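Subject: for your reference before the review

Hello V.,

The reviewers asked for a structural picture of the protein, and I figured it would be easier to keep everything in one thread rather than splitting it across files. Below is the amino acid sequence we used in the manuscript, unchanged from the supplementary table.
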Amino acid sequence: MDKWNPNDIIDKDILELIGAEGMEPEKKEQLYKTMLDTIQTRVMSRIDDLLTDDEANQIKGFMEDGDYETFSEFMGERNIDIKKIYAEETLLYKIELTDLINGRAA
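And here is what came back from the structure prediction:
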């Protein structure tokens, strides 16, 4: 892919954007897992920046206990839109990876 436009970043799968859509299924799965781990780390870092230390410790407890409902309520009470943060981080990651793979890194 020589150039992309904003609709490509939004609409296309990341593997298509980087020219790897023909990858073996096992490698695709591994790559998707790595990408998801990276995005989740970025999301949690952004959330951590929005919370006090005590609040951050509380959400770590919710996550360790698998209490995602309480986690979601906790974020909502603080007006932290998890879905928005995930969407932003996913789009940023797609842009960065596409630029890196296609040789347009700054």
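For the response letter, the relevant points are probably these. The CA atoms of residues 5 and 15 lie 16 Å apart. The mean pLDDT is 87.

Happy to draft the paragraph if you're swamped.

O.
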